[in-house]
Amino acid sequence: MDKRYLLDLEKHGVSIPRTCFLNSKESFNVASVQSLLATDEVVMKPTVSASAWNTWRCSLKEFSNNDRQKLNHLLANTNVMVQEYMPEIEVDGEWSLMFFGKEFSHAVRKYPVAGDFRVQEELGGRYGLEPDPQADLIRQASDVLKIINEPLLYARIDGIVRAGKFILMELELLEPSLFFDANLAAAKRFCERVVEVMGVRWR
Questions:
Q1: pLDDT score for 68
Q2: N or C: which end of the chain has fewer CB within 10 A?
Q3: Could you give the 3-state DSSP secondary structure of residue 115?
Q4: What does the alpha-carbon distance between residue 138 and residue 129 come to, in Å, rounded to a whole number?
């Protein structure tokens, strides 16, 4: 649940956005983070969150009092991550690739409403089935799962593509939306995977 796992994956060669983590109660030094990430445009969010809760984009170069107040409020209660802003989301969207076990099932691409970067439906985002994602994209996403030694019932791999390279935003293993409404056949495949894991006969 804690997005610090991204650093573990990065150590195994997975590409992630440039990211730093702030511990709860830690003071925030704008210049230090700006130097570390080598960018001005960032996204801030709690390390444990869902549906873009307390997630916002801001400029480190023009860090406002409002930004600092929001950040200080978060740091008073939780750990926070500061991540480089990925402009590809606004133009090309964010990919979600679903795997049952470690076999690819289907993919959707999510887009934010104009002027935003958050792709969640409740914030105006939309998504659609991508019926024929490139084989290299599926391979790169599959490479993320190869790092996980434990068996998986399912996984959703979220990320963007930059110059042909997949950059992981999140590895969803705990109750993510698997977008069955975009691909009804995937629901049957998932059920088959469940009964396979349970060791019962599919009827």
A1: 92
A2: C
A3: coil
A4: 15
Q: Which residues are CB-neighbours of 203 under 8 A, at least 6 positions away?
A: none
Q: Which pLDDT score is estimated for 123?
A: 82
Structure tokens at 151: 């068996």
Given a contact cutoff of 8 angstroms between Cβ atoms, the answer to whether 22 and 67 are in contact is no
From the options 3.30.390.10, 3.30.450.20, 3.30.1490.20, 3.30.70.100, give the CATH code of 18-84: 3.30.1490.20
Residues with pLDDT less than 50, the chain: none
Return the structure tokens found at 81: 């991550």
C-alpha neighbours within 13 Å on the C-beta side of residue 188: 4
Q: Residue 39 CB: number of other CB atoms within 10 A?
A: 17
- Neighbouring residues of 1: CB distance < 8 A, sequence distance ≥ 6: 48, 174
